TrEMBL record:
It comes from Linum trigynum. It comes from the Eukaryota. This is MSP domain-containing protein. Belongs to the VAMP-associated protein (VAP) (TC 9.B.17) family. GO terms for cellular component: endoplasmic reticulum membrane; plasma membrane. Coiled coil: none annotated. Residues 1-107 form the MSP domain. PANTHER family: MSP DOMAIN-CONTAINING PROTEIN (PTHR10809:SF110), VESICLE-ASSOCIATED MEMBRANE PROTEIN-ASSOCIATED PROTEIN (PTHR10809). GO terms for biological process: endoplasmic reticulum membrane organization; endoplasmic reticulum-plasma membrane tethering.
Amino acid sequence: MPSTSGNSNVNLMLEMSRKLFAPKSCYMRPPGGIIAPEESLIAAVFKFVEQPESNNEKQAAGELQKCRDEFKIMSLKVKGGMECVPELFEEQKEQVMVERILRVVFL
């Protein structure tokens, strides 16, 4: 198998000079992992609420059971100057409650 590492290294260097890359482990990583010039991120903290799934007699008697909360940060890549509105996260509307919206601009 021929080695192509020389060509891929050159392409990667050229791409990195024009765009910002975020590591895969970064929780603010944009969709696609690339931020082009004049683009920024809008991120929202979502609170997923998971209701307990038991129908015990205790529940019927009115005893409250703890539900599990899970937080997740989701981000959208947007062009510069775009305002952040909750409708941008419309797809998640039925599943979650938006806790806080953040705007992240990479310089």
